[in-house]
Amino acid sequence: MRKILGCIKKAIMDFNMIQDGDVVGVGVSGGKDSVALLYGLKLFQNFSPVKYELKALTLTLGFDNFDLTPIEKMCDEINIEYIIKPTEIGNLVFEERREKNPCSLCSRFKRAALHNLCKDNSINKLALGHHSDDAIETLFLSMFYEGRIHTFNPVTYLSRKDLTMIRPMIYADEREIVRAIKRHGLPEVKSPCPADGNTKREYIKQSLMKLYKDIPYSKQNLLNALKNEKQLNIWKIKEEEFIESKKELY
User: Fold this and answer.
1) Which of 87, 38, 93, 96 is CA-nearest to residue 66?
2) In which domain, by residue range, is 244 found?
3) In order along the chain (250 residues), what is the average pLDDT of each group of 10 residues?
4) How many domains does the chain have?
5) What is the pLDDT of residue 106?
6) What is the predicted pLDDT for the residue at 242?
């Protein structure tokens, strides 16, 4: 867990994620990333120069076979308040709307529910378990499927909710997270989502893994590129020319 802790500490300091008196809610899906983040933030709390309160948050999505007992036991052992909010998001997305591409809609519903859960429990920082691999995958998903260069930010302030989302594991490698979970015997609860493992993100993940094998240091260079604002070189079209070109198309 030492490497994960080092990544968490660096991210918190680099992006000024947590201040004295913050109440940090960790979104816990039951998967390895969110569990590692919760455990890591608890360990960091012991020697952090800033003092903050920690709570764990889980949304149930209305699926069967989602037993949170292992997470409840872990939270009890490390003395973290655990808040579980029942929802029917899964049934709404898969049964009522029968979405062909359910992940985007489900994600929006979950974010809204988590934001409301934070406000209901006086939480001003929502910590999510996204890591460096997630950031790169999101970049490629955005380019390939949306035609834009975009990934999530380490810190995002939501003015309408007066809530800040933070991603303290932004520097952490997924392989190190897997090792830490096994080494410390941390619990995992398998997602009952019907789309789990069969998504565009999973396709991008597998494609990138092949790329990393073929091109040494490519993963680190991609991470460096995400931080390289000064050398961002994209095409810039004058507004008038852009409008005219659209007129010609239509």
Assistant:
1) 87
2) 2-249
3) 93 96 95 95 93 94 84 96 88 68 77 93 96 95 92 94 96 94 92 72 92 93 91 79 54
4) 1
5) 77
6) 52
Return the H-helix or E-strand segment holding 12.
Answer: helix 2-14
Query: CA-CA distance, 250 to 248, in Å (whole number)?
Result: 6
- 3-class DSSP assignment, residue 88: coil
CATH of the domain at 81: 3.40.50.620
| pTM of the shown model | 0.86
CB 52 within 8 A of CB 21: yes
- Output the CA–CA distances (angstroms, integers) from residue 165 to 7, 17, 26, 81, 194, in the order listed: 17, 9, 10, 19, 27
Q: Tokens for 58?
A: 């889980």
Q: What angle do CA 10, 16, 17 make, to 5 degrees?
A: 85
